[in-house]
Predict the 3D structure of the following.
Amino acid sequence: MCGIAACMLKNGKAAPILLGCVKRLEYRGYDSVGIATLDSSIIVEKDKGKIKDFEKYLDLSKLPGRIGLGHVRWATHGPPTKENAHPHLDCEGKIAVVHNGIISNYEELKDELKSEGHKFTSETDTEVIAHLIEKYKNDGHDLEEAVKRTLKRLKGSYAMVVISSDEPDKIIGARKENPLIVAKGDSGYFLASDIPAILEHARNVIFLEDNEMVIIDDTGHQIKDLEGKIKKKEFEYVEWTLEMAEKGGYKHFMLKEIYEQPQVLRDTLREFKTIQKVVDEIGEIKRICFVACGTSYHAALVGKYLFESILHIPTDAIIASEFQYTTNTLDEETLAIFITQSGETADTLNALKAANKNSKTLAIVNVIGSTATREADHVIYTRAGPEIAVAATKTYICQLACIYMLAAAIGKKPEIMEDLKKVPEEIEKILREDNFIKEIAKTYKDKPDFLFIGRGFSYPTALEGALKLKEITYIHAEGYASGELKHGPIALIEDGVPVVAIAPPPFPLETTKIEEDEFHDSHSLTLGNIEEVKSRGAKVIGLGAEDDEEFKKNTSAYISFNPSIREEISPLLYIIPLQLLAYHISVMKKEDPDHPRNLAKCVTVD
């Protein structure tokens, strides 16, 4: 949600730099954009709409000042209008603020400020911040003290940056439950919501923590808590390159990130020795509880199947927003594993903080220094690099890889690692079938409904495949456990409805505790479900082994895989063509797969 960029340059104009920074935050989802620069006074240019439209009528070279703020807004309070776009000013236009998050007591503060004569021009919660700072400056306080007093009055979440024409050589940032980084480069200081925004200008960063503020002037920077105590923090060097955050010749970031999966998977697999050390530090556990949202939850669900079937450890997968209803079952012998790409997802962080009271906690995260990495007892990093497209692809694969490596380390099962090492090459083979998948997309792009089905390890893949399709094409898509079809969903099957059926070769019997005469493998059961939907007119798109002739003959389109890929490894591979299918349908429908409507990359707002 929303994106902040700010800078204090040693020389030169801030506005063109800021526009480049906020362009790299477009992936977060937004409906308006704004820039403020500070010279002898504050100049604001903002409007609803996209940056490309904003640029057409704005000559940024005319905006003076080496200090400035930039923002892309995703509407929460008030519709997307020019008035509601950030930055927001105080009554006299001497203070400018950009803000991410939600101020939950803004109405109370707004009423107070109105009674004191303050005039508001927007419907946003953010504007109260500018007027509160103005109030305390009018009481005789300098900008730093006025900001500090303002922060103590705010309830809710924020990342914010403030400038004032009364102190034109200073910029102040602060955070609580929303990410804000401080970066230093050859050309000056930068603040941003996320690393890609500043990669062109700086690689040395500090991650502010909750209830910290940074004060930057021409002498350098200081980080303080809200009582004014100085906090000593060292810069960390970010290894991501600018090229990693750009399209590299691909039409969309999503397609680039799909094609990056073999390499980022290889990079993530190099973390196995680190994961072994983490497992040694954790010690004995009797239960595992995965917690996540969205795509990360589907990775968690794969973890549940893996840990229970292979390691025989009782395991739960819980949606983060529902976690508060299950905390009474936590204890010191439970390992709670939190999966989050950004490390800043609000629901996941709230659950992590609750779990820390009663159990061991582990975070699987893509962003070094993010809040989750500081809150959890232990951390495993995915090595996906920056993921710009809103729809998660390569981070999902890396999350899965970390879960599999964790299982290999806990269960002392080197055969899992041997299987994982084969996966990048198998993904490359699948990517070479992109044109075939594009043809399938062309056939089914106008269908209004899709069903995705699978059993066991294939059920999370069905859920994730359906999620990818619905979030970037806006086609109604649902994922179901195949056995649930007869309990309601089969009523939706009519002539021509596409059913995506996932049925890899069956799980090996020797890993289960079920007697042979009681064992019914997921593959044969799913083939039975395929017969059911096909007899009712469904068009079956099958995903299975290339030598599975029985499966193949019952499909309208068939995507084949290496038959030596075992079922428990299949989630790492079978999702790839479903990512491509969703991508191609999105493009064919003339949608933007990088910026799906109503969605944003880092959901830091409850």
